[in-house]
Amino acid sequence: MAAPQSLASRIVAAFVLMASVVAGVFALIVVNAIDTVEMRLVSDAMNRQLDFIIEESDQGRFPALGPGLDLYVAPVGASASLPAWLAPLQEGLHETENDDEAYHVLVRDRSGTRHVLVLDQEDFERRETMLFVAVTAGVVISILAAALLGRALARTVISPVVRLSEQVQHRDQLLPLAPPLATEYADDEVGKLAAAFDETLGSLRAALEREQLFTSDVSHELRTPLMVIASSCELLDAQGLAPPQRAQLDRITRACAEMQELVETFLGLARAPQERGTTLVGTSLAAVATEQLHRWQPEAAQRGLALDLVSESVDHGLYPAPLLRAVLTNLVRNAIHYTDAGFVRVVLREGGFSVLDSGAGIPEAERAMVFRPFARGGSTRGDGIGIGLSLVQRICDRQGWRITLSPREGSGCEFRVELRTS
């Protein structure tokens, strides 16, 4: 697959191509025209020279021939008296070679006598070579001049586009108080493009602001009922409950703590890009994986699945606990949800982990869609709304992690997360 070319290089290439075509066609026309004219001049000059020679011969005089000229006279039909390389020639002007030397040969029959005038082409060839060199040099100079002109013009034309591109890509353009772009450009095509970017960026800023406000408001409003639930759990815990009730209370307490962490996760995702640095508590991959294994073990057992944790190598990194927990929770839950029999396995390695299952797998045509919001597997698979993997993708993108999906040999699939991609 050919590498994409920049707009500036395409402008230069267009100038060079145009100059090559124009200069090449012009060179061919010049060479052909000069060759035609020179042949006509040679023909006229040799015919006049032969007329003069015949006229002088008729009066009994034999004029001296100029340099490079030779004359052969023989009866018509007696070609044997002529040199072998001239014998086959018919009347008229010819361009032929003998012993790697080029000659112009004029053959004329008069009163039963054949006159053959031979002109050495050495001077002609020298002039022709000089012409070709001059024309070739002109073509090369034209192409170089076109390349330089195209490069200079490309810089002039592309510079506002490059500047606009850099401005659009700058992260500050998503800030609500970012200045408009169109005011810095003339009212031309680039100015209209800048105005279009202003309109699009304005819509994007509004959408991001609505999302951030909605997430912040929802997260803020959830804190109050969560605090009520947490305090109620503390009060119930002090009542000395029986073991069955205490087990349910512990379950409610864990769920409340997880919801509080999710609130922090959503608030972190709602922050603007320039606020990426979070103060979430760091934890190890092994700790979160072990916690998730215990959490999902009962549901896996209820479905008849084996939920395993395998450590291929030790990872010593620390990661934001709520974000890593959200990623692992969604991946393990999805794997259990879409696996009918067999196993779900979490494999830990240095710098990342994988979640594997022995389920039916994901068709190749659907793999590119699974990380999109509201994308679901099968229509008969429970009541999920399809935002789990989308949330995982958003967290990975924000933290600089990388998640990939690939099929397993046999059946099932593997979600692989790289926590350290550099």
From TrEMBL:
Indicate the transmembrane segments per the record.
Answer: 12-34, 129-149
Task: Give start-end of the signal peptide.
Answer: none
Name the enzyme's class: transferase
Q: Residue ranges of the Histidine kinase domain? A: 217-422
Q: What is its main location?
A: membrane
Highest taxon in the source lineage: Bacteria
EC numbers, comma separated? 2.7.13.3
Which reactions is this enzyme annotated as catalysing?
Answer: ATP + protein L-histidine = ADP + protein N-phospho-L-histidine
Q: Which UniProt keywords apply?
A: Kinase, Membrane, Phosphoprotein, Transferase, Transmembrane, Transmembrane helix, Two-component regulatory system
HAMP domain residues:
155-209
Subcellular location(s) per record? Membrane
Q: Which SUPFAM superfamilies match?
A: ATPase domain of HSP90 chaperone/DNA topoisomerase II/histidine kinase (SSF55874), Homodimeric domain of signal transducing histidine kinase (SSF47384)
Q: Which InterPro entries match?
A: HAMP_dom, HATPase_C_sf, HATPase_dom, His_kinase_dom, HisK_dim/P_dom, HisK_dim/P_sf, Sig_transdc_His_kin-like_C, TCS_sensor_his_kinase
Which PANTHER family does the record cross-reference, listed alphabetically? HISTIDINE KINASE, SENSOR HISTIDINE KINASE YKOH
Name of the protein? histidine kinase
